[in-house]
Amino acid sequence: MFGSGSSLQGDNEHGIDAKAVGSKAYRALYKKREQIYPKLVHGRFRALKWAAMVVLLGIYYITPWIRWDRGPHRPDQAVLIDFEGRRFYFFFIELWPQEVYYITGLLIVASMALFLATALFGRVWCGYACPQTVWTDLYIYVERLIEGDRNARMRLDKAPWSISKGARKIAKHALWIAIAAATGGAWVFYFADAPTLFRDLFTGTASVASYLFVGGLTFATYTLAGTMREQVCTYMCPWPRIQAAMTDAESLNVTYRADRGEPRGAHKKGASWEGRGDCVDCNQCVAACPQGIDIRDGDQLECINCALCIDACDAVMAKVSRPSGLIAYDTTINVKRRAAGEQAHYRFIRPRTILYALIFLGVGALMLMELANRATLDLNVIRDRSPPFVRLADGSLRNDYALKIINRAPETRTIEVSVSGLPNALLSSHHHHHSLHGRSGDGALLVTARPDGVVNARVHVTAPAGIAAGSHRISFDARDVRTGEHVASASAFLAGEAP
Amino acid sequence: MAEKTEIDDVSGTQTTGHEWDGVKELDTPLPRWWLYIFYASILAAIVYWVLMPAWPLVNGYTKGVLGWSDRANVASDLSALRSARAADFARLERASYAEIAADADLREFARAAGESVFGDYCRTCHGAGGAGAPGYPVLADDVWIWGGTLADIERTIAYGIRSGHPSAHLSQMPAFGRDALLAPQQIGDVTEYVISISAARTRLAPNMGAARRGATTYQEQCALCHGPTGAGDRAQGAPSLDDDLWLYGGSRAEIRRQIELGRGGVMPAWESRFDPATRRALAVYVYEMGGGEPDPPPAPAEAPAATPMAAPQ
Prior knowledge:
The structure holds two protein chains of two kinds.
Chain A: H1 44-62, E1 79-82, E2 87-90, E3 93-95, H2 101-121, H3 124-129, H4 131-147, H5 150-158, H6 163-189, H7 194-203, H8 208-228, H9 230-236, H10 239-246, E4 253-256, H11 258-261, H12 284-288, H13 308-319, E5 327-330, H14 332-339, H15 351-372, E6 377-383, E7 390-391, E8 397-407, E9 413-420, E10 426-429, E11 436-439, E12 445-449, E13 453-463, E14 470-480, E15 486-495
Antiparallel strand pairs in A: 1-2, 2-3, 4-5, 6-8, 7-8, 8-13, 9-12, 9-14, 10-13, 11-12, 14-15
Chain B: E1 15-20, E2 23-26, H1 32-51, E3 56-57, E4 60-61, H2 70-94, H3 97-102, H4 104-126, H5 150-159, H6 184-197, H7 201-204, H8 208-221, H9 223-226, H10 252-261, H11 276-287, E5 305-308
Antiparallel strand pairs in B: 1-2, 3-4
Helix pairs in contact in B: 2-4, 2-11, 4-11, 5-11, 6-8, 6-10
């Protein structure tokens, strides 16, 4: 352990015998996985990661339980993806399936935010917010709680099987599985009423799909955060490859300042710092790394920029009375500049960050504007194709249409449907549809649109005898008689030659 | 041939012992995770054989202990569907026409059921959406030979036309030409007269001299059924002649040909094929194509809501 005599290397008072399983020297095309035993560090980045974990897990677990009153007969869950009812509820927002472009917009905004963050600060997403990182961190916390820190865990794994070892392992895996089950369990609450489903899950009356999803996600959480960990980031995730396109020499990354650290070597208390670097080769950065790499090998694909090595190094630098920041968020170009004797400086405003920010703001503003002016009334017109037109006894021609009047508002509305574009045409509904309850003064049909639903209305348009053969453009207009909100939908009126 | 296996220096893995022109093959073991999944798959297959239908036999197949059968599942789904719909069908069968008109849900149900049946049985002749074809009446328009109320339509569906059913609609127009009841000259004159009283006169420009001669023959031979003004008579199934809608075609030659041949189509009686509720559903569907007529006495709520639209903006 850090500072304890047993793990001191002979000539290095702060050093430990830690080898990075993913270090440059051991790298091979195929290698059996070696267990990584990340050592607990203390510092501002560790604190930030704890805080991020609490906030993010809190959001994940608590969100489905937030209630939001939407009136009678409507779900009171603030965030709900209701597949059966084909609605997505998010607090005051309620989206229909055909409004899925909001999700597209959200994804564009999210990816631009990710690009911008990556261009500025490297893989901060990976280091602090990625579910893989958060749950792995939580699992390592549990592991540490039960089996102790790095050295204790290494000793335990090497030790022969005993009751104590078995008990610890069973306790650890049991806790892991419990966390995994809670993770999978929380997921399904986003798709159904949480309190009801919670009860159903435990009484065995929930749907098979619920149990399958809870089971599958329990398994995935357990394996990904418990046993696969850094392998997910290194081998499975595409982001390490993609990020190379977002970052450049000016991006902040967790960087070993080789210009200051080299030549590295053990340092005896009181010895001179002249002619040598600040790195005392204590390997604390390696021991702390959850990805099993040696940050001193430089910027590498495996690094998730979690900055735990910064905390580890800063603690050592304080002990040897050297300035902190031997490992720090820095840019590769600054390392080169300092090595060349130039002044280091940061450039956050670069063409790529401007571009990402502009797209982020542009799409974000567009989606917000769209959302603020979201239409709650929509009209789809489907023209009957057979017969293309009907000739009536008096020589007039009739076309038939199926109207779908979509009312996204939570209240019943009276919609006035009219048609324009054809002189002297009659709009009629042969039979009184249940929702057609009359007509307004100027001849339009009045339709009662039930709240948050679609009304189908079959209507006829009749043109007087003598209309020219061919296709005539017409337009249906649906208008809320109270608010005046209206929407138009174009269609056609077909007229044939005389028989 | 496996001769001598050795440990490869680079990978530390055993070779197979094969050698081809100096090229040796590593005997890399299967990845454990893959192997375990493979074993698990074999186990799952055995469990599946026991539980589910699996092996074909000479007469039949192994049924499996769960007794799964797609055929039985479909049958039970179908019977579940039937029993789910039974209540609506029963309601439809019992309801009066006024009740159907007043009950929106029932009418929607009837329309949907009727549309499905129409597509299977009626569309062949009457066309999709009741578009009709020469000799097969258009059902979407407002011209009815035997009446267009729900009751009329339902009756026509049940008993058919010239179907041989004792209650079938029956009408017979004489074949004035084929049976030499009228001379060709007279038929020509009647053709011109029929055109002159119909809405087709504007496009066919009848010979008014011939039409005047034909008028006398019309009143003697045709007016009894088609009416003195050509308004038709639904009681006898005589089509109206004063509009421009023609069952057998509206050209001069086609009108003349119908006078010569007196054709009349056959519609089967569906009484024995469809239960009363299905017939009623069909009637509602046909009625709502657009030409249905209110049942007497017409309830005010049933009058078509038709008004001229406002002048185009």
